[in-house]
Amino acid sequence: MGYFNPRTEQFYKELPRSKKAEEYVCEVLGGSLTREGDENADVILPNGELIEVKYDKLSKKTNRVAIEYEAYGNERGILRSGADYYFIICYDKDWSQITSGIREDGWWVGILIEKSVLLEMSETIPYKDIRGGDNKATKMKLVPVEDIREASIKVFPIKH
User: Fold this and answer.
1) pTM for this structure?
2) What sign does the dihedral 47-48-49-54 (CA atoms) show?
3) Count of structural domains, the chain
4) What residue numbers bound the domain in which 18 lies?
5) Confidence of residue 14 (pLDDT cuts 50, 70, 90)
């Protein structure tokens, strides 16, 4: 088993986007950030429920969201998170909305989904397994945005 170091160059490159995504979730759901380094979740709601925030920039290209479940031979991501919900910020090419009288197709959206539902989907539906991250040591399932949206509690369109 290899040593897992989440603080890589890529980690620091993505950190500002991740922090912005977490702040957005606090703003729209009325929560607050958890302590830095808390592996249970990123945001806590006033009622105590925990939210894991994910931002998937590649979803614009793939129309899929990568759900991490293992890294360096250890459970990670969805198998380790103590969150009650996932809030996934991704691009949904099928989402359309009318703004200023004009229909706009393809939007960045925030999708709120129960962690248990997302976990069950990733374990029971044969989504494509991929490897990524540093040294290709992270295992993930590629879940179509449409599947996550359809199983979600709520979708938050994000202004262009």
Assistant:
1) 0.87
2) positive
3) 1
4) 9-158
5) low
